Amino acid sequence: MDIIIQKFGGTSVATKELRETVAKKVIETKNRGKYPIVVVSAIGRNKDPYATDTLLEFARNTYYEEESRELDLLMACGEIISSVMMANTIKSMGYKGIALTGYQAGIITDNHYGDAQVLKVDTNPIYELLKNDYIPVVTGFQGATEKGDITTLGRGGSDTTAAILGEAFHAKFVEIYTDVDGVMTADPRLVAEAKVIEEIGYDEIYQMAEYGAKVVHPKAVMIAKRGNIPLKIKSTLSNEPGTMIFHNETYTNPYNKNILEDKILTAIAHKNNIAQVNVYVEDCMEKNEILMNELTRNHISIDLINFFIDKKVFTIEEKNLVKIEKVLRENHFDFHIEKNCSKITAVGHKMRGVPGVMAKIVKALSSHHIKILQTSDSHTTISCLVKDIDTQRAVNALHKEFHLFK
Ligand code: ADP
Ligand code: MG
Questions:
Q1: How close is the Cα of 159 to the center of ligand 2, in Å?
Q2: N or C: which end of the chain has fewer CB within 10 A?
Q3: Mean pLDDT, the chain, as a whole number?
Q4: Res. 258 pLDDT band, cuts 50 70 90
Q5: CA 338, CA 195: separation in Å to the nearest integer?
Q6: Which residues have a Cβ under 8 Å from the Cβ of 393 and sit 6 or more positions away?
Q7: Ligand 1 near 233 CB (within 6 A)
């Protein structure tokens, strides 16, 4: 049984016409003798009536509890609506579409509402349907506890559902359909010359996703890697081959590198809505400990961490601004927060051991008068913190400097 998971994002199922395009793709797969399992996200984005954010806003208009059973039940509605619409579209074309909630699809999770972990998948119900020529349309982003309480899988959860099903059913591929032609050398919304990357390894795309390339969720990449299932990222609207993700890690010999000739970077990723926190504290163990403990206690995760003798610098996501200001004030820390920043990251597994990459980055950004507020690096990434207003210029400058448009 050649099973193919086909996941369609919110914009891919937003209108009747789009749902018909999607149904045709699925039916075409079925007609090739394969067994598609469809996964759908909630219809639309942000302000659209059934989008996840709209439902959340609705809940927040009155009393609600974060990460609760009730909030998950509400948030799961978007995908339920979407799966019904999709299953019915398939039926209207003469095929046996059937909508399934996460629970009906056998996806069992723990009870960590809002960010549940999948514990197991009971594959029997879907296998039974496939054997009887059904095309299952599974709600993305949700599962259920053993008891049957609906849970959600956290942001990017529909990608996670697709990868989980891919692993459980030993799928030939997990295909993620979206509104761009594949994984690109930068976000095409920012860089007009961004190019589709035809093939990429799990580790490299994982890094891109972690550093902000939201075309696929990092958790889904991790699961696909664990199950050794190839992932394809494709456009709903075209028949382009898209990007193939598999075990394709290429580390070249650093001693043979000529940085000027070779394409050393794979992509430039970016992440908005970051704030840089500067805490002016003498190097005293007790104060450091209070700071760190308070951050942990308040679930504020920090990044780009630099400790100096007289100050501690790190970044946070701006959604945690209110929390951090409260923590720092209550503990009498002297601090400054630089708001509206973004982190630009050059990702490239070929840069391992190659000298001069940082120099090129600094040169490219300085020549565009872009101020670098902070940097950090690993063997395969270099990140620079810049002001939000410089994001697009910075991403473009690096994309050009490293010839990613070629
Ligand atoms: P979906 O609703 O289909 O899950 P997402 O909005 O989650 O779609 O992801 C697709 C978006 O990811 C694109 O519209 C694009 O703007 C953005 N994106 C960011 N970085 C990249 C990249 N490197 N390659 C492709 N798309 C990217
Ligand atoms: Mg997505």
A1: 7
A2: C
A3: 94
A4: very low
A5: 33
A6: 368, 370
A7: no
pTM of the model: 0.93
State both tokens at 83.
Answer: 């799966």
pLDDT at 165 over 50: yes
Percent of the chain scoring above 70 in pLDDT: 97
| Contact status, residue 360 vs residue 402, Cβ threshold 8 Å | yes
Instruction: Give CA–CA dist 222/203, Å, rounded.
Output: 8
In this predicted structure, the answer to whether residue 282 has a pLDDT above a threshold of 90 is no
What percent of the chain shows pLDDT beyond 90?
A: 88
Concatenated DSSP letters for 272-308? EEEEEEEEE--S-HHHHHHHHHHHHHTT---EEEEE-
Shortest-distance Cα residue to atom 5 of ligand 1 = 215
Contact 358, 264 (CB under 8 A): no
User: Quick one: pLDDT at residue 243?
Assistant: 97
Q: How far apart are CA 176 and CA 82, in angstroms?
A: 16
Closest by CA to 163, choosing from 225, 80, 112, is: 225
Please choose from 39, 46, 178 the residue to mutate so as to test ligand 1's pocket, defined by most ligand atoms within 8 A of CB: 178
Residue type (1 letter), 34: K
Cα-based angle 215, 220, 224 (whole degrees, multiple of 5): 120
**Phi then psi dihedrals of residue 4, to 5 deg:** -125, 125
